[in-house]
Design brief:
26% helix, 182 residues, alpha/beta, 3-stranded antiparallel sheet, globular
């Protein structure tokens, strides 16, 4: 089974989009540690202090701490893959977070660093193995930037997107919504 990377959309996070929880808070230009992080809670074996911030290019800021399976009536896709398809967080199932209000290009470049970091620090990922990406909304644009502009085609087998504005957004219709005219 190919490893999978889940990528959230605009103004979101891995937790709110996919119920993949991390000890790093999604901030604008960097990730903030919500608590102290031990060497067993990072890909590199590094430790981090509470409130320490790191760039999203640091692979450790994407380490999955837990997945929320509290509501049995709704099973998110990552949980389904973990529970029924033998995927394991931080082994072959990953979440990539980026500053949700940051530029697509910056997030795409950091995605490249994240994938290189996985290849370096995760034993189950070989140097030639391709990833599948499942992305929502802006996460699809981030993925496309990585694939199309940074030679990401060498790393990605499949890209699956949900609600991604691949052809842009027609703002003319939105402008008509609050004119108060009939």
């Amino acid at each position: 089974m190919p490893p999978i990377i889940f990528i959230h959309g605009l103004n979101s996070s891995p937790s709110s989009a996919w119920e993949l929880n991390m000890k790093w808070e999604n901030d604008y230009g960097h990730a903030d540690a919500n608590e102290g992080i031990s060497s067993t809670e990072s890909f590199t074996g590094n430790t981090y202090s509470w409130a320490e911030n790191q760039p999203y290019s640091n692979v450790d800021t994407h380490y999955i701490d837990s997945y929320d399976n509290g509501d049995d009536s709704i099973i998110e896709l990552p949980e389904r893959l973990i529970e029924y398809n033998s995927y394991t967080p931080n082994v072959d199932l990953f979440a990539y977070q980026y500053g949700a209000n940051n530029h697509v290009g910056i997030a795409g470049d950091d995605l490249e660093s994240f994938i290189q970091g996985l290849r370096t620090h995760v034993d189950s990922i070989s140097s030639y193995q391709d990833f599948n990406i499942i992305a929502h909304s802006k996460g699809g644009l981030v993925s496309r930037h990585f694939i199309e502009l940074t030679d990401g085609t060498l790393d990605i087998d499949r890209l699956i997107t949900f609600g991604t504005p691949h052809f842009g957004v027609n703002n003319s219709a939105a402008g008509d919504l609050d004119r108060g005219e009939q």
